[in-house]
C-alpha cells in the first residue's frame, strides 16, 4: 500500500491543473529531503516531471525547482541530460522573451552541465527567436541570452546569470574551448569577448561563472596568443581590474602598466569574493605557461598588482596563487633548469578546479 508521500507524487499527473499545482508545490521540499521518492519505478516520476515543464507557469515553476534539486542525484542527472526531447524543450523555452521561469531554467542548465555529454550542445540547432539576434546554434543563443539578458534586458523576468555556471562547466571540454576563442560568422565576434566584459559585474554569480569560464578556456595553451592580442581577445585588463584596489603605486610602476590600470578612481575596490580573485590570479598563472605570455606580463608590470593583492587579501588560496605567479614572473628565463616549472602549477590549478566543479545548485 503506497504511503501518503507516494500518493502525493502520483498526483503530479492528475488531469486537473489545481491538483497538479498543489502536488508539485508540496513536493518541492521533498526534492531535497527525500529525493528517493522521485526515483520509484525506474524514475517514472522524473519522466512525468520532464513533461510538466510545459505546464501552466506556476506549476512549471515548482516542477523546474524540483528538477534542479533532483539533478544532484547522478542517476536523475543522466536521465535529464541525455534526453534530447527534454533538452530541446528547455532550450526552446529559455529563449522565449516572456518566459517567467527563465532564471530557473538557467539554474537547471547550470546543473545539467555537470554531465559531460552535454558538450554536444555545440552541435544542437534550433530557430532563434526574433529579437535575440543570434544564429541557429544553441550555444550561441545561450551566449547571446546571457549578454542581452543581463539585468532583464531581454526578458523582464530573468537575468540569466546562472548560465555563466553552464559555460564554466562546458568550457572544461576542448571543443567548447575552441568555440569560445573562434570568431563566429553570424556576428563577427569571438564568444569569449562577450563574456569578459562581465568580470566586474554587480552579480556575484555572473562574475564567478565568467571568471571560471575564462580560466577553463585558458587551459588551451595554443589559444594564448589570442588572449594577448589586442585585435582578438586582449584579456589582461579584464583579469587585472577585478583584483586591483585603490592602492597607490610608484610613478615608475604605474607608467608601465596597461592604460586601463593607470587612472583608477580613489574609490576603486577589488572584488569582494576571494574565490573570484583567486580564479583570476590562476588564469594569469595559466597564461604564464609560455615565455611570450610571461614576457607580456612583465612588460605591462603585472607584478606590483599581484604584490598588493597578496598583501591586502587575507585569504590562503589567494595568497598561495599570488606566490606561485610571482615565482614564475620573477624567475630568470636564462636558467634552463627552470623550464617546465609551470607544469606542476597548472596541474594543481586544474585539480582544484575539478573539485570546485562538483557543486550543484539547490533551490
Describe this structure in words.
By secondary structure, the chain is mainly α. Among the domains are: 1-70; 218-363, no CATH class. It has 22 helices and no strands. It has helices spanning 4-10, 17-27, 30-33, 40-51, 57-70, 74-81, 84-94, 102-112, 138-148, 163-170, 174-180, 191-196, 204-217, 224-228, 236-240, 251-256, 259-262, 274-287, 291-299, 303-312, 316-329, 342-356. The longest helix is centred in the C-terminal third of the chain and has 15 residues, at 342-356. The protein is elongated and about 75 Å long. Residues 353-363 have a biased composition (Acidic residues). Residues 283-335 form the Protein HGH1 C-terminal domain. Belongs to the HGH1 family.
Give a nutshell description of this structure.
With 363 residues, this protein is mainly α. Helix content is 57%, strand content 0%.
- Distance between the ends: 31 Å
For the CA atoms, what is the radius of gyration? 23 Å
- Percent helix range: 55-70%
Q: How many alpha or pi helices?
A: 22
Task: Note the topology.
Elements: H1 4-10, H2 17-27, H3 30-33, H4 40-51, H5 57-70, H6 74-81, H7 84-94, H8 102-112, H9 138-148, H10 163-170, H11 174-180, H12 191-196, H13 204-217, H14 224-228, H15 236-240, H16 251-256, H17 259-262, H18 274-287, H19 291-299, H20 303-312, H21 316-329, H22 342-356
Helix pairs in contact: 2-5, 5-8, 8-10, 10-13, 13-18, 18-21, 20-21
Domain Protein HGH1 N-terminal: 94-278
Family: Belongs to the HGH1 family.
Domain Protein HGH1 C-terminal: 283-335
Amino acid at each position: 500500500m503506497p504511503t501518503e508521500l507516494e500518493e502525493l507524487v502520483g498526483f503530479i499527473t492528475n488531469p486537473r491543473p489545481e491538483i497538479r499545482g498543489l502536488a508539485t508545490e508540496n513536493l518541492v521540499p521533498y526534492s531535497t529531503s527525500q529525493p528517493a521518492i522521485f526515483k520509484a519505478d525506474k524514475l517514472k516520476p522524473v519522466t512525468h516531471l520532464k513533461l510538466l515543464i510545459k505546464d501552466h507557469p506556476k506549476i512549471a515553476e515548482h516542477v523546474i525547482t524540483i528538477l534542479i534539486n533532483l539533478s544532484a542525484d547522478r542517476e536523475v542527472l543522466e536521465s535529464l541530460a541525455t534526453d534530447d526531447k527534454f533538452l530541446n524543450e528547455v532550450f526552446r523555452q529559455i529563449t522565449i522573451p516572456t518566459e517567467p521561469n527563465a532564471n530557473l531554467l538557467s539554474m537547471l542548465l547550470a546543473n545539467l552541465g555537470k554531465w559531460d555529454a552535454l558538450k554536444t550542445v555545440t552541435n544542437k540547432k534550433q530557430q532563434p527567436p526574433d529579437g535575440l539576434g543570434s544564429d541557429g546554434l544553441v550555444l550561441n543563443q545561450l551566449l547571446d541570452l546571457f549578454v542581452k539578458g543581463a539585468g532583464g534586458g531581454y526578458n523582464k523576468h530573468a537575468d540569466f546569470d546562472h548560465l555563466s555556471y553552464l559555460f564554466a562547466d562546458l568550457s572544461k571540454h576542448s571543443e567548447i574551448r575552441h568555440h569560445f576563442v573562434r570568431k563566429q560568422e553570424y556576428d563577427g565576434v569571438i564568444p569569449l569577448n562577450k563574456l569578459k566584459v562581465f568580470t566586474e559585474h554587480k552579480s556575484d554569480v555572473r562574475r564567478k561563472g565568467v571568471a571560471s569560464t575564462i580560466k577553463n578556456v585558458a587551459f588551451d595553451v595554443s589559444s594564448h596568443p589570442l588572449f594577448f592580442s589586442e585585435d582578438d581577445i586582449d584579456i589582461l585588463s579584464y583579469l587585472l581590474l577585478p583584483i586591483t584596489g585603490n592602492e597607490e603605486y610608484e610613478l615608475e610602476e604605474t607608467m608601465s602598466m596597461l592604460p586601463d590600470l593607470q587612472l583608477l578612481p580613489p574609490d576603486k575596490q577589488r572584488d569582494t569574493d576571494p574565490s573570484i580573485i583567486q580564479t583570476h590570479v590562476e588564469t594569469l598563472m595559466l597564461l604564464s605557461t609560455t615565455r611570450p605570455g610571461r614576457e607580456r606580463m612583465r612588460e605591462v608590470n603585472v607584478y606590483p598588482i599581484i604584490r598588493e593583492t597578496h598583501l591586502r587579501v587575507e585569504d590562503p588560496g589567494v595568497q598561495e596563487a599570488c606566490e606561485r605567479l610571482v615565482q614564475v614572473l620573477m624567475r630568470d628565463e636564462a636558467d634552463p633548469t627552470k623550464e617546465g616549472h609551470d607544469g606542476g602549477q597548472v596541474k594543481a590549478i586544474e585539480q582544484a578546479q575539478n573539485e570546485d566543479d562538483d557543486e550543484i545548485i539547490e533551490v
